[in-house]
Write a structure and sequence with these properties.
Strand order of the largest sheet: 5-4-1-6-11-8-12
Number of domains: 2
Helix content: 40-55%
Distance between the termini: 17 Å
Number of helices: 16
Strand content: 5-15%
Oligomer: single chain
Length: about 475
C-alpha cells in the first residue's frame, strides 16, 4: 500500500472536520450571547474572530467545516469572502432549521464526520499548533477536552471548571467562586460515534447537549484533557470583552516567531519589530511591500558603506540593523493576516541576499577608497569573492528548500544538515557584527571574514545538496 494512500486514510479517519458555533458557547446553557460581549465579527489584529478561527483551522489541516449559524449568518459569509481565501468546503446550517438541542441535528452532522470532529465557539483565539496537536493526539473512541489555567479567565466570567486525574477528566463544575486551577476552553474534540448516539442522552430544551455528552463519557474514562500551558505553541485565549481583545492581540504578537531565528533576532530584532509591525498593520501594508521597504533601507546602507568615511560607515551599519528589524515585520504581518505565500517567502530570502551582496560590495568599495595603492585591489577582490560566494550560496539554498518542500532528503541526517544550514543562512545576527566592526573601524576584518565565510558556506551547501543526499520524488 502506498504512503500517500496510508496518509489519506489517516486523514479520513482522524480529525479533519470542524464544527463552529458562532452564536453560542460550547458549554453554555443559554443560546444567547451576553449583551456587550465580543461577537464573531469582533476584530483581533484586523481580522474578525470567526474569520480568524476558520483560517487557523484551514492552516492546521482541517479539511471541511460545518457552521451552525445564528442570525449573523449573512455577515459571516461576507466576512469569509473578504481577505485571505478560504479553500476548504464550508457547509452552513442555520440554527433556526437545525436547533442545537435537537438530537437529529447532531446525528445529521455525525453522518458527515469520518472519525472525529473539532467543536469550537469563536469566543477565543487559538494557535495553529494547538489544532495540529489535537489532530495528532486523537484516539479511537476518546474525546479530548482543551483546558487552560483559570488565571487566564476574567474575574467576571462564568467558567466550567475541570477536575483532572492522570490526564483524564474526572468532573466538570460551574461556579464563579470555584477555586479551580483549570477551566474548559470553548474547544474540544468529539468522536463521531458520540454525536451519533445523541438521542441516548436527554438534555433540557434550549440547551447545548455537549456538556452532558462529555460528562457521560468521563464516567467511562473516555475524555482526555489537553492543557494549553504545556507548550508555548499550543495556546488558547478567551475573547469575551474588549479587554480580552487586547490580551489576545498581545498573545498573538508574543507567539510570532520565524522559522529560522538567531540570538539577535530573538532578543532584539523581534522586540523592536513588533512595534513596527503594528504600524504596518495600521496602514495596511502587505508583506511584500514591507520586504521591499527593508530592501530599500538595506541598499541605502550599502551606499553609505561605499562612501568610505568613518561617520558614513557607522550610519550605514545602523541603517543595516534597521533593515534587519524591518525584515522581521514582513513575516509577522504575513502570519498575523494569513497572507503567507511561496512567492513571498522566496522574495524575502532573495531580497535578503541582494542586500547582503550589496553590503559586501559597498564595504569593499569604501575600503578601496580609504586604502593605499598596495591594498586597494585586495579589498575589491575580497568584495568580489564575498558577493560571488553569497550568490552561489543563495542558489544552493534555493535548491535545498525545493528538496525540503518535496520531502526528498534521503535520510533524516541529510534533512537535519539541511535544516542547520538553512537556519544559519537565514540568520540576521551578522548585522550586529557589521555594526561593531564599523564602530571599531575594523570593517576590513569583517570583509576578510565575510569572503572566507561565504566560500566555506557555499562549499558546505554543495556537500549538503549533493545528489547522493537526495532521493527521487
Amino acid at each position: 500500500m502506498s504512503e500517500s494512500l496510508l496518509q489519506h486514510r489517516a486523514d479520513v479517519q482522524g480529525l479533519a472536520t470542524a464544527i463552529l458555533l458562532p452564536s453560542v458557547s460550547v458549554f453554555g446553557e443559554s443560546l444567547e450571547r451576553v449583551p456587550g460581549s465580543a461577537g464573531p465579527l469582533t476584530q483581533v489584529v484586523g481580522i474578525g474572530l470567526f474569520q480568524r478561527a476558520v483560517l487557523t483551522l484551514q492552516r492546521a489541516g482541517i479539511r471541511q467545516l460545518i457552521v451552525l449559524a445564528g442570525p449573523e449568518e449573512d455577515q459571516l459569509k461576507q466576512a469569509l469572502s473578504r481577505g485571505p481565501r478560504v479553500t476548504i468546503p464550508v457547509r452552513w446550517m442555520p440554527i433556526r432549521e437545525f436547533p442545537l438541542d435537537d438530537p437529529r441535528t447532531w446525528e445529521a452532522m455525525a453522518a458527515e464526520v469520518p472519525g472525529f470532529c473539532l467543536v469550537a465557539s469563536v469566543r477565543g483565539v487559538f494557535s495553529r499548533g494547538l489544532i495540529e496537536s489535537l489532530r495528532r493526539e486523537v484516539q479511537e473512541g476518546q474525546a479530548i477536552l482543551v483546558a487552560q489555567p483559570a488565571a487566564q479567565r476574567g474575574a467576571g466570567d462564568r467558567w466550567v471548571s475541570v477536575k483532572v486525574q492522570a490526564e483524564r477528566l474526572v468532573a466538570l463544575g460551574s461556579s464563579r467562586t470555584d477555586e479551580a486551577t483549570l477551566v474548559a476552553a470553548d474547544l474540544l474534540v468529539l468522536p463521531a460515534g458520540l454525536m451519533a448516539a445523541a438521542q441516548d442522552i436527554q438534555t433540557p430544551p434550549g440547551s447545548v447537549p455537549i456538556r452532558r455528552w462529555i460528562e457521560r463519557a468521563a464516567i467511562d474514562g473516555r475524555v482526555r484533557v489537553m492543557r494549553t500551558d504545556g507548550h508555548s505553541s499550543q495556546w488558547y485565549q478567551d475573547v469575551r470583552t474588549q479587554a480580552d481583545v487586547l490580551v489576545a492581540e498581545r498573545k498573538l504578537f508574543s507567539s510570532l516567531k520565524g522559522e529560522f531565528e538567531g540570538f539577535v533576532d530573538r532578543y532584539f530584532n523581534r522586540k523592536v519589530s513588533r512595534w513596527l509591525t503594528r504600524i504596518f498593520l495600521a496602514v495596511g501594508a502587505s508583506p511584500n511591500v514591507i520586504t521591499m521597504v527593508a530592501t530599500f533601507v538595506g541598499l541605502l546602507a550599502a551606499v553609505g558603506f561605499g562612501l568610505g568615511t568613518y561617520p558614513s560607515a557607522v550610519v550605514a551599519a545602523l541603517l543595516f540593523q534597521c533593515a534587519a528589524v524591518i525584515d522581521c515585520c514582513d513575516g509577522e504581518v504575513a502570519r498575523l493576516t494569513f497572507t503567507e505565500s511561496p512567492f513571498g517567502a522566496w522574495l524575502d530570502i532573495a531580497m535578503d541576499n541582494v542586500v547582503h551582496m550589496a553590503i559586501f560590495a559597498g564595504i569593499a568599495v569604501g575600503l578601496y577608497r580609504q586604502a593605499g595603492p598596495d591594498d586597494a585591489e585586495t579589498f575589491l577582490v575580497l568584495g568580489a569573492v564575498a558577493v560571488l560566494g553569497n550568490a552561489l550560496s543563495f542558489a544552493l539554498v534555493t535548491r535545498a528548500q525545493k528538496i525540503k518542500s518535496a520531502s526528498r532528503w534521503r535520510t533524516s541526517v541529510h534533512a537535519a544538515w539541511s535544516e542547520f544550514m538553512l537556519k544559519n543562512v537565514a540568520s540576521r545576527d551578522f548585522s550586529v557584527i557589521v555594526l561593531i566592526a564599523a564602530v571599531l573601524g575594523k570593517l576590513d576584518w569583517f570583509l576578510w571574514m565575510a569572503s572566507a565565510g561565504s566560500l566555506v558556506f557555499a562549499i558546505l551547501m554543495v556537500w549538503v545538496t549533493r545528489s547522493s543526499a537526495t532521493s527521487r520524488a
